[in-house]
Design goal:
It contains one helix and ten strands, in the order αββββββββββ. By secondary structure, the chain is mainly beta. It has a single domain, classed as Immunoglobulin-like (Sandwich). The longest helix has 17 residues. About 15% of the residues are buried.
């Protein structure tokens, strides 16, 4: 009985830690461009890694754009990730995914399709 209880406690602690973070994709279509300007809030002073991917799909073609880096949450617990902008074609579909990690463990992730 001890092993399942320990595993349950670890999973609950992990879920609680991830709940401390709020990720906003900051994505919008403006003037023919899809702009992505993500922000995250969480524990002040925390240093995190992130990955951002933008995938374009349409009429027999696709492309991927990805970037990543390290961010440091300020004294207010807020950080802005790098921004990304891609030209938008009316016939194409886009998927934006941002993943934020703390020492390799995902603490926040969001994905959204446009349009």
């Amino acid at each position: 009985m001890r092993i399942p209880i320990a595993v349950s406690a670890l999973l609950l602690a992990s879920a609680a830690a991830a709940a401390d973070y709020t990720l906003d994709l900051g994505a919008s279509v403006q003037g023919g461009n899809l702009k992505v300007e993500p922000t995250i809030t969480g524990p002040a002073g925390k240093t995190l890694d992130y990955e951002m991917k933008v995938r374009r799909e349409g009429q027999g073609k696709s492309s991927n754009s990805s970037q990543g880096g390290t961010i440091h949450l300020d004294d207010g617990g807020r950080a802005r990730l790098a921004s990304n902008s891609v030209n938008v074609s009316p016939s194409d579909r886009y998927v934006v995914t941002v993943r934020v990690m703390d020492e390799g463990r995902v603490v926040a992730e969001k994905s959204q399709r446009y349009p």
